[in-house]
Amino acid sequence: MTNHSLRTLLLHRHRVWLILAAFLLLFFGVVQGTSNVNMFHEWGKYQTSEKDFNKYDVPAMKKAHKSMTYAQFIKDQRTLKYGNPLRGHVTQDGTFFSMIYFLTAIVLGCLMTFWDQFSGFNRLLFSSGARRRQILAMKVRLYLPVLLIGYLLGAVISYAIIRSGVPHDYLIFYWRSLFLYLPIFIIQLIAAFAAGSLFGIVIGQPLPLVITLGFLGISAGGFSIHVMYWLGMNTRVNYDRITSTPWFNYAFWLFFAILFIGLCVAFYPRISLENSHQYLLIPQLRPWVLAAFTIYVPAVTEDWLFAGQHAISMAITGIAVFSFLYWYLYRPQWLGRKSTQSANHSQTPAP
After folding, report:
1. Where does the sequence pass through the membrane (predicted)?
2. Rg for the chain (alpha carbons), in Å?
3. What is the pTM of this model?
4. What's 101's DSSP letter?
């Protein structure tokens, strides 16, 4: 099958998801912009009174800000600021680098690889004569431009709405910081897209896929904060300051982008159609997944069973996770062996 034929086939198959993704990304841009404008006007309704300012805010100010007037204070409170004012530091601004784009990238990547596998369309693709990595590369060429262009247009829409809905005197854009973080966020989106694609390649059941992604998504943020806190307490290094530097963010997200892309390229040709609709489509990953979750889940939950008793809680959690996953991951093999044995037994002629 030629690249043109493959592209036409995949585009016809995935066009609904691509159009929906483009629409959602633009819609998110509108939502981000209007929410900022609405927030600005809401703050204007509930601003601090001059009496409360003199009574509570002035005594709490640092010496450098003691000379601030009430009018200056109100303007500073209402001013919308985007980016990081510190030179050489960046911040993931919640408007232009929103987490909703990151989550959309994960879902889009997962949908790209999982949908064809779950619906059985991979059987047609894999028997078409096209190499599996060629199929994966063509899917990426269809999905990734929609994600990145849709995000950039969404960010432009947000900016246009904010500029038109908020007086310019109440807007501060730290452009250096924003433009420094833009390539970082694009790499971050690519890493998220590759991570979602990896889960769609490896996992073959929809509900366990959603549960796995949901658990890892909810726990990863808190776990990373916990790790940073532990490192800061034990190494006496200001990791908050380090993580706000461009070089750290570039290195961090570039590493994960390359890692997830490499795993996708390595695992996609190994998808077993015989294991369709099982939790893991690649049986060789069972021991690795079992070990990873047995270590990760207790590390995340810590002392949730018995407050203050980390060791006991983590040990019980680890044993429970190992026992359940061992049964869940290897159960299809047991059932298959039993059915084979029973079939062989039924075919044995009576003496």
Report:
1. 96-115, 142-162, 178-202, 209-230, 250-268, 280-299, 311-329
2. 26
3. 0.83
4. H
